[in-house]
Design goal:
globular; 116 residues
Amino acid sequence: MIGALVTLGGLIVGILLGAIAPLSIPQVYSKYFAVAILAALDTGFGGVRSGLEGRFGLAAFISGFTANTLFAAGLTYLGDQLGIDLYLAAIVVFGVRIFENLAMIRRLILGRFWTF
C-alpha cells in the first residue's frame, strides 16, 4: 500500500510540475515526448496497481520506467528513420495497458472498501 501511495504521489507531483513549468517542446520532438509520456504513465499506473496488489518493487519500477520510456522513444525514432509510423503501435499498446491498469486499480480499490 505504501508503494502505491509513493507511486501515486510521484505521479501527481510530476504532473503538477509539468503543468507549472514554462517548458515548450519543439514540434519536431512532440511525437517522441508523447510516446515517452504514455510509457511513463503506463509504468506509473502499473506501479500503483502492483502496490495495491502488494507486489511493488522499487527496482523493478525504476528499471521498467526507464526501459519503457527509452524503448518507446527509440521505437519512434526507428519508425521515423524507416518512414513507418511505429509510434502508433506504441500508442495503442500503452493506451490499452493504461486502461487495463486503471480498471484493475478501480476493482482493487472497490474490493477493499465495498463488498457487493
